Amino acid sequence: MDPVRQTAYWHGTLRVVALVLAAWFAVSCVAAILLADQLDRVRVGGFPLGFWVGQQGAEIAFVLLVAGYVAATNALDRRHGVYEE
What we know:
With 85 residues, this protein is mainly alpha-helical. It is 79% helix and 5% strand. The protein has one domain.
């Protein structure tokens, strides 16, 4: 791979990682901790939403983040011609 394509690939990879980490921070710190009191005003299945996000929602979000990361990096690999079967 030539240096220009390698740089573009690396910047794309960093962009994907930054987006995943930002979403992780939003779910784990902002929603589950900082906004827990405001979210507790809403009830889901009889439980306050802040509790639900901290106990169940974060884990679901993290699994979805991993799946999204895999899909995004596979698409990036295909776009730059480095995808492995």
